[in-house]
Amino acid sequence: MRLLLLGLIALFSFNFSSHLFASHVAGGSITYEHVSGDTYLVTFSFLRDCSGIEPDASYTLNYVSDCGVSSEIELDSVSNTEVSQLCDISTSTCGNGNNFGVIRIIYQAEVELPPCDSWTLSIDIAARNPSINTSFNEPNFFIEATLNNVLAPTDNSPEFTSLLIPSLCTGSEVSYDFSATEQDGDSLVYSLICPLSDLGITIEDDYPAGYTCAQPFGPGQPISINPQTGVLTFTPTNTGNYVMAVAVAQYNDNGDFIGQVVQDIQINIVNCSNIPPEIT
Q: Rounded CA gap, 131 and 93, in Å?
């Protein structure tokens, strides 16, 4: 009995520790830039929690279309920058400190995408950071972008202006800018969507009761996004990490949908003693 008990304790400890430290994904997005002909430079912006496991040197981009083409390619790391939201980043977990630290890693590769009206580019990584609205299940991190290069053969995707993990205060109204820039003059429409754990599968099944993709901070905490500006407005009341995603859809001058990119992100809500500026 004693040996059995010790064995169960050891097994539990192993499972708990591996579950605890397997996570490191705090957010990310896929964007693309037309190079020439059918060639696109695809960029994966990966936000890594420094307290988790080390990231891979490359990640596999899957790209599939309804035109009979399906393949994959390795995106290699090309840059690595600490983006911890701290006054003194030397105190972050990316170094020798204890404060929440984040590194943004950029992965890139050139990809051949023959003309098709429905390309989907995607990356799948296990596992997400633990968060309030995904319980302790740590679903996979799955991010995708879409492209119609029949209607828009030389188009570039929107580029998010902010690729950070925000730390925000409880009890204060927040207006957070999820806007993007787009160099081709296309119309952009912003929306709050469900984060994904696999192709076509959202993480909403992992949400505790009362949490939804449209209300990621829980019951009684409304959130809205301006579809023209990408500004997210809400007033958080509870501390913790929360997972959410914002999509930016592109439309050409004729009003045709030509693609979409998504920023999947973790938002940290903390107790603050400072006095925030008044929003006017």
A: 18
Helix, strand, coil: what percent of the chain each, to 5?
10, 45, 45
Cα–Cα distance list, 19 to 55, 109, 151, 201 (Å):
16, 31, 45, 22
* Contact (Cβ atoms closer than 8 angstroms) between residue 81 and residue 93: no
- Name the more confident of 276 and 63: 63
| Dihedral over alpha carbons 27, 117, 108, 167 (to 10 degrees) | -20
- Helix ranges (H only) for the chain are 2-21
Q: For residue 75, with 0-12 CB atoms within 10 Å meaning exposed, 13-18 middle and 19 or more buried, which class applies?
A: buried
Instruction: Write out pLDDT tens, residues 67-116.
Output: 999 999 999 999 999 888 888 888 888 888 888 888 999 999 999 999 99
Query: DSSP readout, 44-63?
Result: EEEEEETTSPPPPSEEEEEE
Each as own residue / partner, the long-range contacts of residues 86-90 (CB below 8 Å, 24 or more positions apart, any chain) are none
> Pick from 103, 142, 102, 113: which is nearest to 42 by CA?
113
For the record, the structure tokens of 143 come out as: 């991010």
pLDDT tens string 19-37: 333 468 889 999 999 999 9
**Does 277 have pLDDT greater than 90?**
no
Q: Which residue has the higher pLDDT, 3 or 250?
A: 250
Cα separation, 134 vs 137, in Å, equals 6
* Tokens linked to 112: 């051949």
Which residues on neighbouring strands pair with residue 79, listed in sequence order?
106
pLDDT in tens, 211-263: 888 888 888 888 999 999 999 999 988 888 888 999 999 999 999 999 999 99
Which residues touch 15 (CB under 8 Å, ≥6 apart)? none
